[in-house]
Amino acid sequence: MKRHAQTVRLRPERREEYLALHRAVWPEVEAALRAAHFRNYTIFLRGDVLFSYFEYDGDDFDADVAAIAADPATQRWWRLTDPCQQPWSDTGAGGTWSDLEEVWHLTEEPAQ
User: Fold this and answer.
1) Which of 31, 40, 42, 44 suits a disulfide with 51, CB 3.0-4.6 Å?
2) Which pLDDT value is given to residue 95?
3) How many Cβ atoms are within 10 Å of 79's Cβ, its own excluded?
4) pLDDT recorded at residue 43
């Protein structure tokens, strides 16, 4: 399992639209994420900054991300959510969200 964190800015004028969409995420979008081995996906908001966290338990992250991107329901979802977001300058090729580097993780206590 690999942990991922990402961030993007939320356009203030689209804030309520974005929040309303996420109060009722489409089941097809959630199913595509689950099928692509995304687990424990959470989006947080502070001011106008969105932060996402998810865990990936698959074997081919790039292929699974491509499967999500090819999903028709997800494509329709992104047509609604992407205009609400304002990417940072370092999103990379084709991305909206910027990856964050993990610098620390609390691990389980060693067995005694």
Assistant:
1) 44
2) 73
3) 9
4) 98
Q: How far apart are CA 81 and CA 26, in angstroms?
A: 12
What is the SS3 assignment for 54? strand
In the chain the domains, ranked by start, together with CATH numbers, are 2-99 (3.30.70.1090)
Phi, psi for 24 (deg, rounded to 5): -145, 60
Which is nearest to 68 in space by CA: 31, 93, 26? Answer: 31
Report whether pLDDT(94) > 70.
no
Secondary structure of residue 64 in the 3-state scheme: helix
Residue found under tokens 């067995």: 111
User: Mean pLDDT over residues 3-20, rounded?
Assistant: 97
112 near 18, Cβ under 8 Å?
no
- 24-81 confidence digits (pLDDT tens): 999 999 999 999 999 999 999 999 999 999 999 999 999 999 999 999 999 999 999 9
